[in-house]
Amino acid sequence: MSNHASDHTVTAYKDAPTREITAGGVTFAYRELGPTGGVPVVFFVHLAATLDNWDPRIVDAIAAHRHVITFDNRGVGASSGTVPDTIEAMADDALTFVRALGHHTIDVFSFSMGGMVAQALIVKDPGLVRRLVLTGTGPKGGKDMDKVARTTYYDILRAALTRSDPKEFLFFNRDASGKAAAKAFVKRLEERAADRDSPMKPRGFQTQLAAIKRWGRGSPDDLSVITQPTLIANGDNDRMVPSILSEDLHRRIKGSQLIIYPNSGHGGILQHHDEFAPIAAAFLAPGATTADGTGSS
Predict the structure, then answer these.
(1) What angle do CA 119, 124, 125 make, to 5 degrees?
(2) How many domains is the chain partitioned into structurally?
(3) CB 3.0–4.6 Å: which of 47, 68, 79, 200 could bond 113 by disulfide?
């Protein structure tokens, strides 16, 4: 673990040192890269994921111009404590982490469960987030959201039978292009050779799944509080968080942009990273124009 502030000029996620900060009784593991100063982009990760699960092609594209922070929430990877059993409690921990780093305004890039945590965070503190990216996710109480656990366990079993990474089944279609994209994605995650994160513990994974199910069965939040520029993206065949929920988010979040990638699943942004990464980077670029024509820095 590194706590030095001197290596902020890291530009490749595979080289970003793992740091730690303690707040609220939790020691959070995190990594940062890209130019510091200004508002950081904080990445909110998916179910069962650690620091090592972010696609470097997407992180690096955004970090070319922005200060990027990835982190393990409580009980995940190298962070201490026990995984919370609600999405809202995960949002509380994320807020604790962001505040501990001294940030009062952030941009958010989120994927899957991370998008649920990001929504809960904005509902709690609408002024914290300036620009928002929601990918492979859906709203609280969204149709069939509570079936994530069943799909996940089924695909983990399918993966075990073929000795594959479960993400190949969960994130990608099982056609020729999907299988190729899955293998390429898993290979990209292996680019970081040293200082890798601790794996997700099975109990923490089960707790996260239960939290997603609870979120799926909960009363919908009032998403009219999300007034910041928002980019929503997914594949057209998401089996984990049904693609229709991205359209639901788009309807509920006024002025949001929606991208649905054809012939792809939950990991649509990963399969189409060569198209999506520049779009996300432009959306999060310093001085990007908002939907109402005003600029941001």
Answers:
(1) 95
(2) 1
(3) 47
